[in-house]
């Protein structure tokens, strides 16, 4: 990893600008706190912002000698003064620019969009445009594009400065997004020129020319940096963001992951390093070290420490081939109705009982899909059972690899993010149960409510702090 050690020179270049970032975390679920308490905590956070025009105080990013490696450090930047920006009315500080903002994470399987609608819009073209943007996705079918309404929140006076919408569509249907942009370019050309779009993911490069053809300016950010930035932004600024699955306090089979109950977790003060496991089309594992305090706040340092090509794209592709399903969500719904034991070969199928020598119960899976070597079983298997076995197989393999990497890197807090985790309670439960079993309770798997949108959210968060060398 690369760190900045010349602290005096760092401080001298930044000048005398000082900024405090107090955040009073609201009590989490189970401690008797109300949502309003958490919202008050959210509004108590202040952070230096940055105007789009930068005025007299400018922010500059210098990558030292163009060094590049898989170990990237967000504190390896030089920053000058950051001017304050405030929300329209009561002086609350927002770290995002004003106006219509879009954070877009275009991955290999899904495109994720975070749309910030300004909190205070007078009736007029901008208000009408915001309504049309919401309607485009609400009127489409789930495969082409849809809004995750459960994740919506309004924060007009706080750090986000508006109404936050979270939308997704399959990358194979990306034409739907460009059709929306084309319509808006024709309907409200002046308003579209004022949009600020921050993009990340491979698609930000692949589809850059199509944005330019529409006359829309896109600012790109590094994918791994936006993941780290998005995780930190959500954890520090959105109350009740992280949770895990734990055994029930009374009754239930503690070895059955389906009996686990959801519990909100305060993770922002957990000892680092953390391991961030981003499960998208493939899987990247990022070691997130202690944040470094600088004049404008805190920045995280990280490096990529592992990964696997077996991820959400694998699940979607194989699942569609095996079952005829059309989408990720449809596969998960099928898996929830299925029984993986009808497909998987268990220890009990081989030994007829527990394998006492290794302490393996008869219900332990010895071979995923192992029963289907029998032609008769293959002819009678249900699509739901196939989906259940597939999601279990992929989840356990990711969990096992993540556990090994966590041990290697000394990480006890493991945070799973990425689109594969979205609305995927099956995998969440299996990850939580696996880490509880393998670590004997020493480490835990954590999840995020906005897990599929950390890249898009990170692109927005980074937009006010740095300008990437790829910005156009």
TrEMBL record:
InterPro entries: ATPase_NBD, Type_II_PanK. One of its GO terms (biological process) is coenzyme A biosynthetic process. Residues 1-41 are annotated as: Disordered. Residues 31-41 have a biased composition (Polar residues). Pfam families: Fumble. GO terms for molecular function: ATP binding; pantothenate kinase activity. The keyword Ribonucleoprotein does not apply. SUPFAM superfamilies: Actin-like ATPase domain. GO terms for cellular component: cytosol; nucleus. Keywords: ATP-binding, Coenzyme A biosynthesis, Nucleotide-binding. This is Pantothenate kinase. The lineage of its organism: Eukaryota, Cryptophyceae, Pyrenomonadales, Geminigeraceae, Hanusia.
């Amino acid at each position: 990893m690369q760190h900045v050690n010349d602290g005096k020179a760092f401080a001298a270049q930044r000048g005398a600008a000082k900024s405090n970032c107090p955040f009073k975390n609201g009590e989490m679920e189970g401690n008797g706190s109300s949502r309003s308490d958490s919202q008050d905590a959210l509004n108590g956070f202040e952070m230096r912002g940055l105007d789009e025009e930068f005025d007299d105080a400018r922010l500059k990013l210098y990558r030292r000698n163009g060094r590049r490696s898989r170990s990237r450090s967000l504190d390896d930047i030089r920053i000058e003064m950051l001017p304050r920006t405030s929300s329209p009315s009561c002086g609350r500080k927002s770290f995002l620019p004003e106006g219509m903002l879009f954070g877009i994470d275009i991955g290999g399987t899904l495109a994720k969009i975070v749309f910030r609608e300004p909190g205070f819009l007078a009736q007029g073209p901008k208000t009408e445009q915001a309504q049309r943007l919401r309607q485009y996705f609400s009127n489409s079918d789930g495969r082409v594009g849809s809004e995750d309404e459960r994740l919506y929140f309004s924060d007009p006076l706080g750090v986000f400065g508006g109404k936050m919408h979270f939308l997704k569509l399959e990358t194979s249907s990306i034409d739907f997004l460009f059709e929306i942009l084309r319509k808006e370019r024709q309907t409200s050309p002046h308003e579209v020129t004022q949009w600020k779009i921050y993009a990340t993911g491979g698609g930000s490069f692949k589809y850059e020319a199509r944005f330019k053809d529409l006359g829309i300016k896109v600012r790109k950010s590094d994918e791994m940096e936006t993941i780290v930035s998005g995780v930190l932004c959500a954890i520090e600024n959105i109350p009740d963001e992280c949770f895990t699955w734990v055994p029930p306090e009374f009754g239930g089979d503690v070895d059955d992951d389906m009996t686990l109950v959801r519990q909100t977790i305060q993770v922002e003060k957990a000892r680092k390093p953390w391991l961030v496991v981003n499960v998208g089309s493939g899987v990247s594992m990022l070691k997130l070290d202690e944040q470094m305090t600088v004049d404008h706040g805190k920045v995280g340092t990280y490096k990529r420490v592992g990964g696997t090509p077996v991820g959400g794209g694998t699940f979607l592709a194989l699942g569609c081939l095996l079952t005829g399903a059309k989408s990720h969500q449809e596969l998960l719904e099928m898996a929830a109705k299925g029984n993986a034991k009808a497909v998987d070969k268990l220890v009990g199928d081989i030994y007829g009982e527990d394998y006492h020598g290794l302490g393996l119960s008869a219900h332990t899976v010895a071979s995923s899909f192992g029963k289907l070597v029998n032609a008769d079983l293959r002819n009678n298997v249900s699509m739901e059972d196939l989906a259940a076995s597939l999601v279990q197989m992929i989840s356990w393999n990711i969990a096992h690899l993540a556990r090994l990497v966590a041990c290697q890197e000394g990480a006890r807090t493991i945070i799973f993010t990425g689109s594969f985790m979205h609305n995927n309670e099956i995998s969440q439960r299996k990850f939580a149960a696996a880490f509880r079993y393998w670590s004997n309770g020493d480490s835990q798997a954590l999840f995020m409510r906005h897990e599929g949108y950390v890249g898009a959210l990170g692109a927005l968060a980074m937009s006010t702090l740095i300008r990437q060398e790829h910005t156009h």
